[in-house]
Task: inverse folding
């Protein structure tokens, strides 16, 4: 009798453990579905600044790009040029060409031009800390785009503000899509680049969400340089296919660039372009990414950033800095593109450009037509 009771209690405890696991798994999937539903809705109305200093006149700024081959960095540079024309400023773009030495040289060239302001276009602030301090000492205002791991002013460097969609929310959207779409059964490979603080923050956050789904599997996190994606991603993709085979059902990347070079090896391996592994990017929403999602060609989702709008925000924040005002504190909301909504919110033109009137709003703040 004692043995039977012990057996029954053990069975009840085991059942409770299983039930608890099922509940936890269901909660993770339900949370992911709810988040994805919210992130894929048409962009909400403008929730950024509506007041600020009038336009400073006759200013010159330099946009130093980490690598203009990166669609996100290029898109922001084009937004900066458009906004600078509206505010009647001179803007120059210098390409760091994807290397530490190139970025260092580009920043030194920018500082030598003695501009009023300098924009870090995807340049990691820690990597170029001395150049940033040098620019500040020369009286040059510094604005970052994806320069640090969080939005807003830097606590450690003289950066007036850093502009980015909240990287943790971007990561949550991408990873939640994988959890929800797989119904909690994903086998995931994450691609990151430890050169960039923001990339590590994003990949760590995505890994946490996958681990929180008890029935999902984080197969590996691969650290590979974005600047060498064109040469590294193809052999790395082949190696991962050999290592994991059909267990690999989803990829999470820190931006769209790695996916640019995954299609060829996946196709050579006989993988269905609309099948698995499904590739999901936590930014930036490049033209190539939109094209792939629209045609179901080796990409299933991207958490696109409003690159042109960010360019206009760069100019607005620079104007605030030059006017001696505080930063706006604006962080654009997260938006997730998947095959079901990819033709909306500018997606039909291969870009995320929210139709919320931001250009006219910024012109109104600056007092220009």
Result:
């Amino acid at each position: 009798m004692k043995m039977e009771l012990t057996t029954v209690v053990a069975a009840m405890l085991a059942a409770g453990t299983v039930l608890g696991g099922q509940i936890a798994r269901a909660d993770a999937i339900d949370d992911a579905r709810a988040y994805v539903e919210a992130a894929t809705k048409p962009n909400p109305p403008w929730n950024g600044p509506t007041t600020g200093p009038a336009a400073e006149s006759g200013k010159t700024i330099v946009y130093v790009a980490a690598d203009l081959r990166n669609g996100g960095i290029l898109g922001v540079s084009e937004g900066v040029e458009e906004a600078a024309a509206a505010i009647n400023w001179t803007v120059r773009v210098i390409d760091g060409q994807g290397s530490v030495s190139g970025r260092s040289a580009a920043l030194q060239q920018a500082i030598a031009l003695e501009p009023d302001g300098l924009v870090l276009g995807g340049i990691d602030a820690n990597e170029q800390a001395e150049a940033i301090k040098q620019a500040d000492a020369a009286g040059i205002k510094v604005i970052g785009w994806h320069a640090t791991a969080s939005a807003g002013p830097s606590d450690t460097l003289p950066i007036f503000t850093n502009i980015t969609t909240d990287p943790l929310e971007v990561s949550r959207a991408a990873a939640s899509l994988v959890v929800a779409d797989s119904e909690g059964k994903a086998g995931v490979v994450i691609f990151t680049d430890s050169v960039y603080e923001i990339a590590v923050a994003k990949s760590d956050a995505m890994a946490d969400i996958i681990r929180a789904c008890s029935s999902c599997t984080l197969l590996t996190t691969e650290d590979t340089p974005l600047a060498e994606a064109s040469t590294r991603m193809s052999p790395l993709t082949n190696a991962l296919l050999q290592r994991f085979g059909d267990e690999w059902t989803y990829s999470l990347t820190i931006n769209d660039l790695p996916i640019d070079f995954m299609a060829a090896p996946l196709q050579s391996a006989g993988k269905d372009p609309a099948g698995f592994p499904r590739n999901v990017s936590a930014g930036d929403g490049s033209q190539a990414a939109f094209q792939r999602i629209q045609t179901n060609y080796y990409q299933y989702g991207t958490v696109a950033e409003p690159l042109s709008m960010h360019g206009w925000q760069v100019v607005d924040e620079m104007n605030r800095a030059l006017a001696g005002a505080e930063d706006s504190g604006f962080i654009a909301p997260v938006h997730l593109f998947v095959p079901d909504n990819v033709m909306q919110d500018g997606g039909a033109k291969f870009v995320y450009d929210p139709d919320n009137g931001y250009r006219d709003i910024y012109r109104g703040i600056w007092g220009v037509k």
